[in-house]
Design goal:
alpha/beta; 5-stranded mixed sheet; 12 helices; 38% helix
């Protein structure tokens, strides 16, 4: 894209390969009023920088109090998730770790057009943003992206498909798995499934999810990352807290297993169409 030629080497440049240094540098730029967009080449390697996110970026505004300094405007992009052959160090999806940190926003788009709108909104946001990009979609998702500048609202879910019988909540790459499972289940069971894309994982859009579940009476949460203490656990707990009397069946979670992603088992770990289809059937048959 010739970004260096377009914007100059003082704005677009490579850094030393130090994740802690990359994020720390971005925090310093944001504290001085800039809008840094940093990149961690793979989300699997972000962990050396975790201290910078948790103890610096997320707490900057709280620590500075009335001085007005903050790290808002900082965006850190990172490719995440599996591609079928990434094994231990190119498959992880660590979004739930960041959703446990007040002061950060966590975003994961599902497509190129969504990525552009959410990224521009993240850059304009007054909070530091962790922007996770499912790398399998770099080559799999094809979409016409408007040339002009536009933004999509953060912390606002999108109903991709309306329905009246079951609510399926997901984000990122698994949304396409959900679409295939829903298509098959609707034909087989004669139901209408509502599909919701969270888009922002923290702070997430509770109102849209609760309203949907109160209407349908059944909820399934699907995500690629580990099921234990994942985003789905928070969504399920919130549904049972605010829509318990509307539930016709227990909230289900379809997610990655609580194991490391070994190469030969990677495809068995990531939720597939069969697992989502089976969860829909369990809700129907309950």
């Amino acid at each position: 894209m010739d970004l260096v030629d377009q914007f100059g080497s003082d704005r677009v440049f490579n850094t030393p390969l130090s994740e802690q240094g990359i994020v720390g540098f971005a925090i310093g730029c944001a504290a001085q009023g800039m809008k840094p967009v940093a990149e961690i080449q793979f989300a699997d390697y972000v962990f050396p920088a975790f201290d910078q996110f948790v103890n610096e970026a997320a707490r900057f505004r709280y620590r500075e109090g009335a001085t007005g300094y903050h790290a808002g405007g900082m965006v850190v992009r990172m490719p995440c998730g599996g591609v079928g052959h990434g094994a231990f160090y190119h498959t992880q999806s660590p979004e739930s770790l960041f959703t446990h940190v007040p002061g950060l926003r966590v975003v994961m788009p599902r497509s190129p057009a969504q990525a552009k709108g959410l990224l521009l909104a993240s850059i304009a946001c007054n909070d530091p943003v962790v922007f996770l990009e499912p790398k399998i979609l770099y080559r799999a998702a094809v979409e016409q992206v408007p040339v002009e500048s536009y933004s999509l609202p953060l912390s606002k879910a999108e109903i991709l498909k309306p329905g009246k019988d079951i609510t399926v909540i997901s984000y990122g790459a698994p949304l396409y798995t959900c679409m295939s499972a829903i298509d098959a289940a609707e034909k087989d069971f004669g139901i209408e499934v509502e599909l919701i894309d969270l888009r922002t994982l923290y702070p997430w859009d509770r109102a849209t999810v609760i309203e949907s579940v109160r209407k349908t009476g059944d909820a399934i949460v699907v995500h690629e990352s580990m099921i234990n203490a994942g985003v789905g656990a928070e969504v399920a707990a919130t549904i049972q807290e605010h829509a318990f009397n509307s539930l016709c069946s227990p909230v289900q979670r379809v997610a990655g297993w609580s194991v490391h992603n070994g190469l030969i088992y990677e495809k068995l770990n990531i939720p597939d169409v069969a697992r989502v289809y089976d969860a829909i059937w369990k809700a129907v048959d309950y």
